[in-house]
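[scheduler] slot 2 assigned
[scheduler] job type: sequence-to-structure, two independent chains
[scheduler] chain ordering preserved from manifest
[runner] begin chain α
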Amino acid sequence: MLVLRKGQFEEIVHHARKALPNEACGLLAGQLADDKRVVEKVYLLTNVDNSPVHFSMDPKEQFHAIKDIRSNGWVLLGNFHSHPESPSRPSDEDKRLAFDPVASYLILSLMHQDHPVLKSFRIQDREVSEEKIVFA
């Protein structure tokens, strides 16, 4: 289960809308507490691909985010990206590029602009299982 504050959700949505028509991306950091993954900070990163169907995170921004995560004693919980015109489910490319079986992979669909849909997934060997998101 992933615990996300409403303000963090709004931050992700705002970042994704600003990136349109391209995909937006970022990292999630926080704490592990029993079966909960509690998000403490959302890192809004640049999609260097500038593409509506791909994303690659800016390596320098990733490096600075990881340094900040470590300095705060948090762990990297996962990442997020947006799907500007498709549902919030992993694409074949998303599955192929999901190398960390313990990471949470969040996908925000902006298919319906006034109703963004955020879902979280765990992906291992291209097998996908949805992870519950609890909004705190």
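[runner] end chain α
[runner] begin chain β
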Amino acid sequence: MHLQESGEMYLETIYVLSLEKNAVRSIDIANHMGFSKPSVTRGLGLLKDDGFIEKDSDGHIILTEKGRNHAIRIYERHTLLTDLFIKIGVDEQTAADDACRIEHYISDKTFDAIKAYIKKKELQS
């Protein structure tokens, strides 16, 4: 199943927030993303229906294994691409913004090739 960019952004946000906090709530997501609470509620509902997240009895959002795997993949793309762009001379904000756009559209094949290239270059250094 291919998620739309917005779904991937929600998963990535939940993942990042879960690294910072013990419990992630929809208001945390809304504040982090700058979205309205109703928009977040709708987006989370779609992710729940598709099996990417669950909510516990206190209303905390929890990534399922499927959701966590997808979130980690997107987050890895974001961080690797951001770092790469900074290394080639792009300022940090532009690098992060561009990585955020690209991470949703780059193919696995191209991303894996970039990862392999970076690893090879780091080993040669």
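[runner] end chain β
[qc] chain β: Residues 44 and 107 are 25 Å apart (CA to CA).
[scheduler] slot 2 released
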